[in-house]
Amino acid sequence: MSHTAHIPSHRKPRQRASKSALRAGVAGGVLSTIAVAGAAGPAQAEPVTQTIEMPTITSGFSTAVAASAQATQQVALDLETQADEDAAAEKAAKTAKKAHAEAVRKAEAEKKAEAAAKARAEAEAKERAERASRTSERTTLSASSGSSDSGSSASAPSSSSSNVSGSAASIVAFAKAQVGDAYSLGSTGPNSWDCSSLVQAAYRTVGIDLPRVSQSQSTFGTQVSLDNLQPGDILYWGSAGSAYHVAVYVGGGEFVGAQNSSTGTVQRSLDYDRPTGAVRVL
User: Is 0.85 topped by the overall pTM?
Assistant: First the structure.
């Protein structure tokens, strides 16, 4: 017999069968509970089964939205078409209005052109008649100027208010014969003059060659008072040496001058446009 036979063992005693059974029962209960809970799950998820039919509702809604979008697009297209038609109509109206205005303008322009042509024709006819009259008068004056240079006296034209003789008569007669001629700056006749060219041409009939411009003519000769004028004197406007206009004194308180483009060559009273001074060349 061993000496250690009666020494108690330090190993843990084996669990009894009852405890093992108890533990097995507890574990089984837990598993059963889980199984029951798992079995009960589908019954609680029945409401989810109803939501599976949502695709049918969504499909109908999508169709309605698509139809509404198409209708909206159609309305937009209709509005755009209407806007284009309105713009085209407005453009056509403006074009028609512009064409009408242009037609009216052309008609007025043609009417004015016809009136201007008629006026020119009448003016040309009148000018031809006046030119013929002046040519006849100049022929008579040329014949009388020879006798004037030889010392014989010549009476002034009937339109003169005083008798003029000698070279002065020729100057006055020539100046009066140009009344009615046109005025044009730089012109020297025979049917269009400026102020100084008319005076120069009048003095040239008696062999006196005056300077061409007003400034020089206003100092060519002896300065005389406006109260002591004689036919044939040169009248000037402005200062002597810087005059801006000249004319021929024809007697009777009147002068002849190429005034401006509006009046042409005219015979006027000194009171019509009072000169500044005068010079005597003869």
Answer: no
